[in-house]
């Protein structure tokens, strides 16, 4: 459990949120999505800074869309042209932003518990984790659960197979915790070289065919080649053959089961291209829901909690 220090609006990882708090975020996301509740531009004149020290398309741009819908003034900090490149510490960077009147910093970086450490200090702004190394990606887990809840009506009892590069996946780590909090039944699967014994203490591991055959939802994970220190599988063709979601495997899944993937995908590796756009794929709905969930997370940060 994260101790959030003096700033209740921090969102560092999913396990700091209770089931009730996640449900409140879903309700707020619903309000934004359905056009009810407060109008947009409600936070005009307030400032958010986006600090992305690792690549991102979905998270960075859906935060930016969310920020624009809320009427926030947006600052983008570029690592290479900022004083971070001259060695300025992350703490000093955040304190500088707070002095300039920034209310929220949305941060993606390579991990190591830095955000948790920062959140214990008095920064004068709220932090939102936009994906931290292999550690956590709370807004991704929220949007995934939100998407599943919309489709199935509830999360309790839902069997969700999370498949692939579990060892390097912040998405798996945050999703398992969020799904468990809702009483869902996450299971893990993938190559032996990509298993994570620690995560398996809270979500069982099943062989791939068994995991997808019994699941209500199958969440395929990207093979994160950039985080591999060594070769963890023999070839792309071998990965697809043993662990890829193909049309043949979709036909062995339960007829109501849906497909998720946080993106970006390696088409033809962990998922075949035709399944990305398949009628049973929720992948583009996940992306769209990211905007509403991130509006709710930003609102929580600006209000110091919902
Ligand atoms: N799902 C996700 O975090 O994608 P990006 O890396 O493109 O933000």
Rg for CA atoms: 19 Å
| Number of extended strands | 8
Report the sheet-strand fraction.
5-15%
Q: How much helix, percentage-wise, in residues?
A: 25-40%
List each distinct ligand once: phosphoric acid mono(formamide)ester
Query: In sequence order, what are the helices and strands, one letter per element?
Result: HEHEHEHEHEHEHEHHEHH
Task: Describe the sheet with the most strands.
Answer: 4 strands, parallel
Query: Could you tell me how far the N terminus lies from the C terminus, measured between alpha carbons in angstroms?
Result: 19 Å
Strand order of the largest sheet: 2-1-3-4
| Envelope shape | globular
The total count of helices amounts to 11
How would you explain this protein's 3D organization?
The protein is of the alpha/beta class and 306 residues long. The chain is built from eleven helices and eight strands. It has helices spanning 19-33, 58-69, 90-99, 114-119, 138-152, 170-181, 208-214, 236-243, 247-252, 273-276, 283-303; strands at residues 47-52, 73-77, 102-109, 126-132, 159-163, 185-189, 217-220, 258-260. α1 packs across α11. Mean pLDDT is 92; it is low at 1-6. It binds phosphoric acid mono(formamide)ester. Phosphoric acid mono(formamide)ester is lined by residues 56-60, 131, 140, 262-264.
Short description:
Helices cover 38% and strands 14% of the residues. With 306 residues, it is of the alpha/beta class. It has a four-stranded parallel sheet with strand order 2-1-3-4, sandwiched between helices. Strands 6-5-7-8 form a four-stranded parallel sheet, with helices on both faces.
């Amino acid at each position: 459990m994260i101790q959030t220090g003096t700033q209740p609006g921090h969102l560092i990882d999913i396990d700091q949120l209770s089931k009730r708090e996640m449900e409140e975020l879903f309700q707020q996301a619903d309000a934004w999505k359905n056009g009810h509740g407060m109008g947009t531009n409600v936070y005009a004149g307030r400032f958010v800074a986006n600090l992305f020290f690792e690549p991102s398309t979905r998270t960075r741009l859906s935060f930016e869309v969310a920020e624009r819908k809320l009427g926030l003034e947006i600052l983008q900090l570029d690592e290479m042209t900022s004083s971070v490149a001259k060695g300025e510490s992350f703490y000093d960077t955040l304190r500088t932003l707070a002095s300039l009147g920034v209310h929220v910093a949305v941060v993606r970086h390579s991990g190591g518990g830095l955000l948790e450490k920062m959140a214990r200090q008095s920064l004068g702004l709220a932090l939102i984790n936009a994906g931290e190394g292999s550690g956590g990606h709370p807004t991704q887990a929220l949007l995934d659960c939100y998407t599943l809840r919309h489709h199935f009506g509830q999360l309790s009892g839902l069997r969700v197979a999370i498949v692939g590069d579990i060892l390097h996946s912040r998405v798996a780590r945050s999703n398992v915790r969020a799904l468990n909090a809702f009483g869902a039944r996450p299971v893990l699967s993938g190559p032996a070289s990509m298993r994570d014994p620690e995560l398996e203490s809270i979500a069982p591991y099943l062989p791939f065919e068994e995991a997808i055959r019994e699941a209500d939802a199958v969440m395929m994970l990207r093979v994160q080649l950039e985080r591999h220190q060594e070769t963890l599988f023999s070839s792309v063709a071998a990965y697809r053959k043993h662990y890829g979601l193909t049309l043949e495997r979709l036909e062995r899944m339960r007829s109501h089961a849906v497909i998720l993937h946080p993106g970006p995908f390696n088409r033809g590796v962990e998922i075949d291209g035709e399944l990305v756009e398949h009628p049973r794929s929720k992948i583009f709905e996940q992306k769209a829901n990211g905007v509403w969930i991130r509006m709710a997370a930003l609102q929580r940060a600006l209000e110091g909690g919902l």
